[in-house]
Amino acid sequence: MQQLSDYSHPALAVDIIALCVRDAGLYCLLIRREDGDVVGGDWALPGAFVHQGQPLEEAVGRAAQTKAGIGDLHLEQLAAYGDPGRDPRGHVVSIAWLAVAPEAAFRSRMAGRQDLQLARVHIPGASSSVAIVKNDADVPLRLAFDHEAILADAVRRLQERIGSGPVGFAFLPKRFTLRDVQQVHEVILGRSLAKPAFRRKLLDHHPLRATGEYETGNAFRPAELYELDASNRT
Prior knowledge:
alpha+beta, Arc Repressor Mutant, subunit A, eight-stranded mixed sheet, two-stranded antiparallel ribbon, 6 helices
């Protein structure tokens, strides 16, 4: 009878795709790699190896807190990546997790961290297997491992779900305008949406409550603020 010790085992890791919307663009949280020449890129998705005997959820929670400072955000499992050549250092299987939040949630956690940055994600086309990310100077960033492909998969997951569920609201603060919601959808989908049809569908399918308050600090006419009405969720 064969034993587990008879088999060689790949290492197991977790990687986190943490996304936000700002300036009409989609941004991803990246961490600097000091071994960029070895792993194929100077920047990467935050991640960590799973320790022996450690539950997967505990490992991703540790990575979220210690590597990215976002341990209090909700994480959803995306997919597993196990190509034997994805990590030049050896065979590593990675479980990718997705987190979305308002930009302010990331900014507050990045304070004082020179090894973290929010990079703009250029939405991949239907035929593209990778996503391109650029810094604030519009310079493309080289991501380690297969993280450009993982990021592209995360964007496609959002595109599949944003029209049928409340995922888009996770990018927004507690109170938001209908214009804010439409912008999130347009950023994720990579295309413009007709305002009347979008708002009609939005109000028909999501439990929103008008607060009676209006946004401030904008040059144009203030828009009314809304929030999700938890009492009307089904």
